[in-house]
Structure formats: C-alpha cells, structure tokens
C-alpha cells in the first residue's frame, strides 16, 4: 500500500467510525404498536408498582388495580438550583427545572426542564412503600400538605417539605423531602408512626418513569446522539447500560449489595442512590398508556424495616437530579462519574477532560482552553508528526520520478509497484512512514471528540465574536468553511496521488468534511480547525527544511 492510499484511509477513518455508530443506532427496531411489554414472569400487583419481597410469615398482598395517572394538588419548591413541583397524588417529584441551565443561549430566562410530567417526553420520579397484609403508601396515594409553595430562604442551607397520609388501619405516614443549597441531591424520608397494636414491616422502592423520544436520525443534521436510557452500577458488575430495547425485551432483576440506578440523557442524569445497608434489587418493567410505552427502572430494598407498636421508624433514599458536572459527580457515590459516557476511550478521554478543565480555570474561556489543549496535544505528538511530515516531504520530492515510472510502465501495475519499491529503497524512504505516526494519534483525536461532545461544562459556553455556544453548530458556518479550506491547504503540501481516482477522492475530501462538520458542535470544529492549522505550519516548516538541505 503506497502512502497516498494510506493517507486516504486514515482521512476516512473518522467518518467511518461515525457512520458505523449511526448504523448501530439505526438497527434498533421501532416498537410495534401491538408488541407485548411484559416478560413471561408473573406480573406485580400493579403494573407500575413493584411487588414486595416474599416472606413466608406473611400472607400474599391483596391485588392492586392499576389506575390511570391521577393528579392532585401541585406543591412548588424553589431553591438556588431548582424550581420543582411535587404532586400530592403520589407525593412524587414530577417537574424539575434547572435554574443554572437555560434551554438555549437565546432563552436565558427559560430553565431547562429535566423532569416533566406532561407532553410526549415524560420523565419523573416515583417512590413508595410496599409490604404484605396492609395498605401502604405508593406513588398512587394522595397525600396532604398544609402549604402549596416552599422557597429556600437566604440564610438557610436546607429546605424541608412534608406530606402526610393516614392509612385505613390508622398508621400515620409522613413523606419528607429535603433540598439543599448548592446541591442537586434530594433526600426523601418516609416516617412511619405505628399507632396500631401490631408490628409494622415494609420495604421502600424508588423508580423513574420515562417515555422514549427518538432523536433525529438524519446523520448530516447533527452528531451521533449521546446515549439516552437506563444504567445501573453494582460493585460486582460495575457500570452497565440498560437501554429501552433491553427493558422492552425482558424485565431487569439484579440483586446487589450497593450501587445506583439511573436514567441518562445528553448532559444530564437522574440517579437513585440507595441508603443504608443492602441488599437491594434493581428492576425494570414496561407499562403502556395508549400506544406509547412507559419505562420504569428503579430499585427496592430487600431487608424489611420493622417498627414496633407505638414506635416510629424511617425508610429513606436519595436522588441526584441534575447536570453531569464531573466535579459534583465525583463527590457522589462510587461510579456515578461513569454516567459521563466516553465509551471505550474513557482511559484517554478522562485525562483529556481534566487537562481541559485545568486550562479553563486558567484562561476562564472554554474556547481558548480548547485551542491551548490542541496545541499541547500537537506538541506531545510533535516527534511522531515530524517523522510523518518528513516522510511526506521526501515523497513529494520523488513525485517527478514516480510520474516518470508511471509513464514508463503504463498499466502494468505489478512492474510499477516493483520499480517504486526499488526507488523507495534506494532513497531510504519508508512508504508507510507518513501513515503510521498519524494512525497512532487517531484514538487521541476521537477521545477528544467525545470529551467535547459529552461534557456539560461546554454546554452554552461562549468563545468569542459570533460563537456564543460551543456545544451547538456555528450559526454562520464560518468555522466549518475555514476547516475545509485548511484541508485544502494540507493537500497542497502533501504529495499528489498518482492514481487519478485517488486524486479525485482526495480533492473531494475537503468538501465532504465541510458538509459533515456544518452541524457539528462549534467546539469540535474549532479543535479540528486549529489542529489543521498547526499541522500546516509544521509541515510547511519541515518541507522548507528538507528543501534547504538538498540545495
């Protein structure tokens, strides 16, 4: 394989990887309207309320009728980071707007809603207690509260919201939400006041309800979509994605001593963080509302909480609901940082983000941090790049002699290849010398691609002039056009392919890449443009140095 063919394959490698990822996404079949959503196992008492763990000393629970979604009174909660609503029907956190994260740069006063219980894109939390032999408060129970609006005051670090319910047997339940200043954590406690004459025992469950929203599948209208779906983490199996198709195929049932369960989407995560000692069971199921499936994923405790007559007891859980800010995720439970999904290149991507974040702390601008990081990467690979460009410079000097060989041997490709190899050997040129150093750098480039794509820190990050958000496309397509022009500049410095077909393909690559990058995030295009400009400068200097030595 000659150097031109090798360079062509390397230039296409990045595009092929993206196309392959897109192909994998396209293979996920749509959910047929009449498809079954239940596994072959026995269904729980209500389709979206998990069954209590089996206990031989208690009778089975009475069947609970699955009712349509009910609505109660809305309780509004405002903190320094949240504007949220709790529905008294279920006592669940139904809507969460993130005050520090606007929907877009053009709508700075409209916060992004991570949880919402309306429209086609449903995503919210549900919690409850389960057991046997009595009625327990679940996410269909209607609670009472004295207030309809709560606000974190200036001098307070914590805000408490309490909901009450009295069971038919007289046992009193209080569901308490605790919100904290400068935190995306929400503590949820169930206080059980056992006013009956018999011991009380029960279990806690916490789950997410979500509908699947299919992203735009037009490849040229955006980058490969970030993962949306479920995920769990256990000490035994570590991080594992549970996507919608898996939940549709079979119910998740996984016992673990600790861990977490989450729903992920681009830039944001909601995760249940079990409290207390295990074991716990992570589970999922699918229920339908009309033709749209609703996916539940969550966990339940397997050790019963016991409350003696006349005593109080507590069951609790914790919820993280917010952006994938890596500094915050590191301070949560083990493994939650993996929700920032860099894929198989995490060992490379994670250090790159750390360096990028450190640079941002110095220059206070993510755009300039990207430029400096690109420069540092270029310096780190300078010896490899120099070897590559020296090989290409020598190849370019051989172009007239190679062209003479091509004219001499015409269509006899075997003799042409032999003559070319003899010429390379005589001039001590490795025809792959320009390819292999570049090939080694490809994993680093792709890792940085995922860092720039996945990091919420770059969401709505301004650079300069017209670039007001590095996480979305350049509104005027200036960066992609400059990037395409830089590719043309690189080709002018490279040896021209002898094969006419290869030459046409190489000439078309700048156009193809420009079209591909038109809708890429501006931060990615900025990185690629700067990398190309630095490559041109380095290659020009090496070409000039080699030319000077030969004169």
CATH class of the largest domain: Mainly Beta
Structural class determined from secondary elements: alpha+beta
User: What would you say the CATH architecture of the largest domain is?
Assistant: Distorted Sandwich
- The CATH topology of the largest domain is Beta-galactosidase, Chain A, domain 5
Q: Going across the major beta sheet, what is the strand order?
A: 7-8-9-19-15-14-11-12
Strand content: 25-35%
What does the main sheet amount to?
Answer: 8 strands, antiparallel
**How far is the first residue's CA from the last residue's CA?**
30 Å
Count of folded domains: 2
Question: Which oligomerization state do the chains in this entry correspond to?
Answer: single chain
Q: Tell me the overall shape.
A: elongated
Helix content: 25-40%
Overall pLDDT confidence:
80
Uncertain stretches: 1-11, 17-46, 56-68, 217-222
CA gyration radius, whole angstroms: 30 Å
SS field, number of helical segments: 12
Could you tell me the number of beta strands? 19
Question: How are the SSEs placed, and which strands pair?
Answer:
Elements: H1 3-26, E1 74-78, E2 82-87, E3 92-104, E4 107-115, E5 123-130, E6 149-151, E7 158-166, E8 172-180, E9 185-193, E10 200-210, E11 229-234, E12 238-242, H2 244-249, E13 253-256, E14 260-265, E15 268-274, E16 280-289, E17 292-301, E18 305-307, E19 312-323, H3 326-330, H4 346-363, H5 366-380, H6 382-397, H7 399-409, H8 413-426, H9 436-454, H10 478-493, H11 500-517, H12 522-549
Parallel strand pairs: 1-6
Antiparallel strand pairs: 1-2, 2-3, 3-4, 5-10, 7-8, 8-9, 9-19, 10-17, 10-18, 11-12, 11-14, 13-16, 14-15, 15-19, 16-17
Helix pairs in contact: 1-11, 4-5, 4-9, 5-12, 6-12, 7-8, 10-11, 10-12
């Amino acid at each position: 394989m000659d150097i031109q063919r090798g360079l062509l394959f390397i230039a296409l490698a990045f595009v092929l990887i993206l196309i392959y990822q897109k192909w994998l996404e396209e293979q996920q079949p749509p959910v047929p309207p009449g498809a079954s959503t239940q596994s072959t196992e026995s269904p729980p008492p209500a389709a979206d309320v998990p069954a209590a763990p089996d206990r031989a000393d208690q009778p089975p629970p009475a069947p609970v009728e699955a009712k349509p979604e009910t609505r109660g009174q809305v309780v509004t909660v405002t903190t320094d980071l949240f504007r949220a609503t709790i529905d008294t029907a279920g006592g669940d956190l139904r809507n969460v707007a993130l005050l520090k994260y606007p929907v877009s740069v053009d709508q700075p006063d409209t916060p992004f809603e991570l949880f919402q219980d309306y429209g086609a894109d449903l995503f919210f939390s549900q919690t409850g207690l389960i057991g046997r032999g009595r009625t327990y408060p679940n996410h269909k129970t209607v609670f009472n509260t004295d207030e309809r609006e709560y606000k974190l005051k200036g001098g307070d670090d914590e805000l408490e919201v309490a909901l009450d319910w009295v069971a038919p047997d007289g046992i009193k339940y209080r569901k308490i939400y605790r919100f904290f200043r400068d935190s995306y954590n929400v503590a949820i406690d169930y206080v059980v006041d056992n006013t009956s004459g018999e011991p009380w025992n029960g279990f806690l469950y916490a789950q997410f309800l979500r509908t699947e929203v299919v992203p735009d599948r037009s490849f040229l209208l955006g980058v490969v979509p970030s993962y949306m779906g479920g995920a769990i983490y256990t000490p035994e199996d570590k991080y594992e994605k549970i996507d919608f198709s898996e939940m549709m195929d079979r119910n998740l049932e996984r016992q673990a001593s600790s861990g977490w369960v989450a729903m992920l989407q681009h830039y944001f995560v909601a995760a249940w963080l079990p409290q207390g000692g295990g074991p716990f069971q992570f589970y999922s199921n699918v229920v339908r509302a009309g033709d749209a499936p609703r996916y539940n994923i969550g966990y339940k405790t397997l050790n019963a909480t016991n409350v003696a007559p006349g005593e109080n007891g507590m069951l609790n859980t914790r919820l993280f609901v917010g952006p994938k800010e890596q500094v915050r995720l590191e301070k949560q439970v083990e493994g939650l940082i993996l929700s920032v999904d860099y894929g198989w290149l995490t060992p490379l991507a994670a250090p790159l983000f750390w360096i990028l974040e450190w640079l941002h702390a110095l220059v206070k601008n993510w755009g300039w941090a990207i430029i400096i990081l690109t420069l540092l990467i270029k310096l780190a690979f300078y010896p490899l790049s120099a070897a590559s460009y020296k090989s290409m410079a020598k190849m370019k000097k051989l172009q007239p002699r190679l062209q003479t060989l091509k004219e001499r041997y015409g269509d006899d490709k075997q003799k042409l290849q032999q003559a070319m190899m003899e010429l390379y050997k005589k001039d001590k040129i490795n025809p792959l010398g320009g390819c292999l150093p570049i090939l080694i750098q490809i994993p680093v480039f792709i890792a940085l691609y995922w860092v720039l794509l996945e990091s919420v820190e770059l969401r709505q990050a301004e650079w300069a002039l017209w670039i007001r958000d590095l996480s979305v496309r350049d509104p005027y397509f200036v960066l992609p056009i400059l990037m395409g022009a830089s590719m043309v500049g690189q080709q002018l410095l490279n040896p021209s392919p002898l094969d006419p077909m290869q030459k046409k393909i190489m000439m078309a690559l700048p156009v193809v890449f420009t079209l591909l990058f038109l809708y890429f995030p501006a931060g990615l295009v900025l990185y690629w443009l700067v990398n190309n400009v630095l490559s041109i400068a380095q290659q020009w200097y090496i070409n000039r140095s080699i030319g000077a030595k030969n004169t």
